[in-house]
Design the sequence.
């Protein structure tokens, strides 16, 4: 679908407005703890502006189930008091929501300029080789998903990898394979964490 | 006179983020105490007199922004703190929020008092979850100590500060897009006017300020506008955080006055300490990825809003990305366009479609299959994005192409003539396609 006779778009044309249809999935409802958290968060906004809590509500649902299904989105819509289409609209826009199952650990490799200058492309390459998957895919055992993301905001500690919500800084390409082994063996202890955390 | 850090004097010390440390070592919340005894209008006048300019990128005077907030409206007013720091090369707010969160909290409270708001929302990017945890814990402590909540310090002034987590959208850093996102919609910019000062969050008068901007407010209240203005050159007063990354010895966040030159920031002993690995300097992006490149001959310009603008670029968010001689400029433009293509919100056609076109063209040139007329086409497409969109994103997306073409056109031509990348650096992937698989 190129507009120019001599030029083709890449096969997977990227488009923010692409509608992602999620599976309906199993029935969904918050756990009592999550329900309490949501009810508290809604009070941060004026009573007639419950929709402001939509991102928080989606994070809770995603945290509980790993990814967002149609039923989860319908549940969030009920909680907020909007239509499911409104929720889908939001989910399909923001990159941190997953509409397909992802691995237990999602490796987000920063690929933007400052990280790329210090070898982020090669980090992705090394992780890809080590895990045997391409960026965007999940290992068959459901352990790792590899994703390339745009600037994470830690350019002085490049290259940076965000694993779920934890950061690992200064991951040299040569050490990427070892990092995966380390992660398997020691779990969260393998992260350098954010360097600004001077004290634990 | 040596410059004394104002915003980050203790960031390397343990427990610098705690309330006790802030109150005991940094004259914490004295600014708020003083502000509450003043008239809100006088506060705004003080900030205006200080010449504080927005640290988020545009450099708009903060006092003016507050003055524009509609005081006659009967609707509630809001402060939105822009902590969506996503500009490639920028990481200053991260430091402030993680190591000096009470400064921001105090800044939020004072600004709320100044414009007559009762609620401040800190919109933090989704990737900063570890920062958010620190921030929320410290806000909790500020509530307990009576610096936030009802009847603050017995003055009868109520103020709430809430943290709102975004979910991975660069565009949410644009002020109206941030408001849309806070309202629970896609982060897409609004048509202006009306400006947020008149109809912002929930259609109420709103001031949207960057983290660093709000952090500058307590010191201004405490030490006076004259002190603040004297810290830097005319109209560029106050301390400034510089984020230096890329091919330098010691990347990081450095606080300095805006009298400091770009050369000092790159080569200075107390700053980035020169180029890494003994390589030669090639160019610098002085204000986050959205601004034009500067070359060696521009480095003696002061790193102030006006100084950098005079040299032909913009200080933006003060994210200095230093590039050494191994950087291929076609690759650089391609890398940045991958970013802009991905982050375009999709609202305006020139940016949504044009960004993709630019990326495809750059891929072709970098891959060695480009034609000479592609170079002119690149120029044409870029010129048809800049200035033709609702927000500044369009200009930002066109800039990497325009600036590399202007300064390094010969590299584009060499790519076409030789049919390959002329500078295949060792830090690049062995498979160039890797950079553009989706």
Sequence:
């Amino acid at each position: 679908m190129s507009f120019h006779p001599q030029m083709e778009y890449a096969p997977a044309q990227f488009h923010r407005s692409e509608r992602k249809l999620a599976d309906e999935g199993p029935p969904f409802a918050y756990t009592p703890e999550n329900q309490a958290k949501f009810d508290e968060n809604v009070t941060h906004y004026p009573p007639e502006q419950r929709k402001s809590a939509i991102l928080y509500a989606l994070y809770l649902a995603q945290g509980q189930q790993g990814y967002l299904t149609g039923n989860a989105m319908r549940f969030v819509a009920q909680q907020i008091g909007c239509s499911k289409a409104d929720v889908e609209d939001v989910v399909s826009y923001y990159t941190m929501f997953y509409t397909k199952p992802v691995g237990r650990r999602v490796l987000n490799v920063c690929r933007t300029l400052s990280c790329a200058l210090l070898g982020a492309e090669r980090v992705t390459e090394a992780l890809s080789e080590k895990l045997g998957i391409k960026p965007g895919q999940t290992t068959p055992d459901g352990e790792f998903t590899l994703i390339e993301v745009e600037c994470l905001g830690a350019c002085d500690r490049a290259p940076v990898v965000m694993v779920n919500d934890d950061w690992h800084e200064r991951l040299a390409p040569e050490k990427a394979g070892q990092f995966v082994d380390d992660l398997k063996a020691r779990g969260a202890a393998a992260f350098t964490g954010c360097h600004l955390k001077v004290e634990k | 006179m040596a410059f004394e850090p104002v915003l980050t004097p203790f960031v390397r010390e343990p427990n610098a983020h705690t309330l006790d440390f802030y109150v005991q070592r940094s004259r914490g919340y004295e600014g708020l105490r003083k502000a509450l005894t003043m008239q809100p209008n006088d506060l705004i006048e003080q900030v205006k007199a200080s010449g504080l300019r927005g640290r988020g990128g545009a450099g708009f005077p903060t006092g003016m922004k507050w003055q524009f907030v509609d005081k006659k409206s009967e609707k509630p007013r809001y402060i939105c703190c822009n902590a969506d720091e996503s500009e490639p090369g920028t990481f200053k707010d991260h430091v402030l929020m993680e190591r000096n969160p009470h400064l921001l909290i105090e800044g939020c409270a004072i600004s709320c008092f100044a414009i007559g708001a009762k609620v401040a929302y800190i919109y933090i990017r989704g990737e900063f979850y570890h920062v958010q945890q620190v921030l929320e814990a410290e806000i909790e402590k500020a509530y307990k100590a009576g610096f936030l909540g009802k009847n603050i310090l017995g003055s009868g002034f109520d103020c709430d500060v809430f943290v709102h987590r975004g979910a991975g959208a660069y565009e949410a850093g644009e002020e109206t897009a941030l408001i849309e996102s806070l309202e629970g919609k896609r982060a897409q910019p609004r048509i202006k006017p009306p400006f947020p000062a008149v109809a912002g969050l929930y259609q109420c008068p709103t001031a949207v300020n960057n983290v660093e901007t709000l952090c500058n407010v307590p010191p201004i209240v405490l030490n006076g506008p004259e002190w603040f203005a004297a810290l830097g050159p005319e109209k560029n007063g106050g301390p400034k955080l510089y984020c230096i990354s890329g091919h330098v010895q010691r990347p990081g966040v450095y606080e300095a006055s805006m009298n400091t030159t770009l050369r000092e920031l790159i080569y200075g002993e107390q700053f980035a300490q020169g180029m890494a690995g003994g390589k030669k300097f090639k160019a610098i992006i002085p204000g986050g990825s959205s601004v034009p490149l500067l070359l060696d001959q521009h480095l003696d310009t002061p790193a102030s809003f006006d100084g950098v603008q005079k040299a032909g670029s913009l200080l933006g968010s003060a994210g200095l990305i230093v590039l050494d001689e191994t950087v291929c400029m076609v690759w650089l433009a391609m890398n940045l366009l991958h970013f802009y293509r991905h982050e375009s919100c999709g609202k305006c056609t020139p940016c949504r479609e044009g960004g993709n076109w630019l990326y495809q063209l750059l891929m072709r040139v970098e891959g060695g299959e480009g034609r000479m007329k592609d170079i002119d086409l690149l120029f044409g497409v870029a010129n048809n994005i800049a200035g033709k969109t609702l927000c500044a994103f369009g200009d930002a997306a066109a800039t990497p192409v325009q600036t590399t073409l202007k300064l390094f056109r010969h590299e584009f031509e060499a790519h076409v003539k030789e049919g390959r990348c002329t500078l295949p650096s060792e830090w690049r992937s062995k498979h160039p396609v890797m950079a553009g698989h989706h």
